[in-house]
Design brief:
The complex is a heterodimer of chains A (380) and B (328). The termini of chain A are far apart. Chain A is built from 12 helices and 14 strands. In chain A, helix 8 links the parallel strand 8 and strand 9. With 380 residues, chain A is α/β, with parallel strands linked by helices. Chain B has a domain of 216 residues. In chain B, 74% of the residues lie in helices and 4% in strands. A two-stranded antiparallel ribbon of chain B has the order 1-4. In chain B, helix 4 packs parallel to helix 8 and helix 4 packs across helix 12. The chains are: A alpha/beta (380), B mainly alpha (328). At the A-B interface, helix 3 and helix 4 of A face helix 4, helix 13 and helix 14 of B.
Chain lengths: 380, 328
Amino acid sequence: MSKKLSLTTFALLASLVAPAAAQDIKVGTIFPLSGGAGPDGQTVTNAVKLVVGQLNEKGGLLGRKITVISKDDESTPAVGVSRANEMISEKVDLVIEGWNSPVTLAMQPILARAGIMDITAVSKSDLILSGETNPNAVRINSSNGFDAGVIAKYIVEKLKAKKVAFLTQNDVYGNGFQTAVEAEFKKLNFSGEVTMTEKFAFKDTDFRVQLTNLKSANPDAIIVTNSSNSSGLPAMVEQYRQADIKSTFVGAVGIMLTTVFKVAGDANNGIVSADIFFPDLPPFTSIPASTDFVAAYTKAYGVAPDKSAALGAAAVQVWAKAVEATKSLDRKTVAAAIRGQAIKDTVFGDVQFLPNGQMQPRYVVFKVVDGKNAKLEAIE
Amino acid sequence: MTVIDTSSPAPMSALRAAAVVVLIIVGFFMPRLLGGGSVAYSTLTTIAIFAVMCYGVDLVLSYLGEVSLGHTLFWAIGGYAAANLSVKYGLNGWSTALAAIALCIAAALFLGMVTLRTREFVFSLVTYAAAVVAYEIAFNWDAIGGSDGVVGIPALILPFGFATFSGLSQEDLWPVAFVLLLLTLGFIARFRRSKLGTTALMVQMNPALATSLGVDPRKIRLAVFVLSAPITGLAGWLYGYQRGYVGPDMFESYFLVLMLTAVVLVGRRILIGPLIGIALLIAQQNLLSLGGDWNKIILGSILAIVLILWPTGLVGLYRRFGKINSSK
């Protein structure tokens, strides 16, 4: 009660001192800021704040300043729902959210029913864009379907593999990715065959049985899904090298994160994977909006931005361009200016959105050349 | 039986009945009294639903003296029944509620039979294991939602013959949540005075006496456990409609810790104890939040401190201070 009171008092004072403050455009962020995913959520939130700061320096949006309200969903859908309700009562004009798919799926209907523009930055579930949770959904991160396409293309056209095996995480993410890759193989008229599938659970850290089987099958490539990038995946990479498997380790899109390089070091050398943003690889080094963002982020936070930061930054940029183009903050108007449209000058360059709200990703396939220092080399 | 008889309250006086009616009316208009905003409605609807969820655990904890760590299972069954049946088969609220009740009773019968001979620590462990197994099934079984859960849950439809209730927003669902809470409170109040309630208490307090009176403790334990399941299940059922999304997160310890803390915080065997407990906890999380990590530390500490220092809850603490003061 006392907090509410003091807030009201503060709002009252603020409105007396600076009448313009009431005109501010409000941008809300809901990401995990505590617990295991806390550092990741902080990264996205920091990127949003940075880009909003840059917009304010240039005079804001529609002649108004933008303020950021950031909240912690604690990686828990029930908490995310409470935070979404708080955003509604604060009458924000945009919510940028989503590290975990279940949290996003729980918040989407709440925000949609209240008519608040909602952009999903990271969460990857296909259900997010199904239209059932939010008919005006917009997502920046790539989808499993596209991810599978780029990996299949590499295997078939670049590696020209004949025998392929899967090392798959046994859940919706892993199995879904495998199914999608196999479907892409068909589309590409893949002449080789899938010789083996080994599965494991998300929490596993010992993969020696599966790796021994894979070694004896000796395929040209092993396609790996493993989203446990702080414990399971580094362990898997180490054990893969110890088993002295000759097959190319092809990691699913977006799994080769800093933590894997930190823990497994040079054991990562030779791994092939793909992702949609790199601060120091082409084409991003020749996109002005990207180099500007990388420089500003590095200056502000002391480290180069990773993909999550770029996703947060792009969410603000995309929304701001749509607001400028339509001179409106209305959810349907702004969403219509994004869904199915092209947006120029984001950290990802000029981007195209599909009619369902998915940003079309631009992949870079890479090979790890110096795992210890996380040095990558772009293939193609 | 004299021990038991003294614990049952005297028949309600007219004054008391009037007070209850006033409280119910004030309770119903509470969201309006708190400003009528969407946060007032959503917070109070959530408190009402969570309170009902807690009463299932309360029944087992207060009257059997056992800590069930498996009630997230019934909570999730309610949510999954509402989600799957309304999305895939377009069933209305009555049908999904009936299915939720039936499934909860079936699951509780099974779990109750399995745990019939277990007590205390082992009982808690087995119920917890059941919830973990159910979580894994829900997480991996795509037909009921898998790890992504079920989206697109439609508005709650309750046909009454002469009219049809349809609730989508928090404002619409508040009356349903409020009525569900009232029904639950009424049920618990009745249970406390019922033969089953008093016998359950006797079995907990004095098993030897109960057995000597010809009571079969196992039957009583099973009956109370089975009764408790649909209460938590119905809360999960309404929660599914409120949130519009049901996923394996309903098994998360977030709900389990909430249930247990809310029940022990105020004190066991107090009718409105769980309701006040959950209201305090949700108010702390939403209005006086100290951030995710601190909230969890606070919630966990409260549970530990209450259990270690004042097993009788805030009411026990108040009584103790009351005694110290009066003895001066």
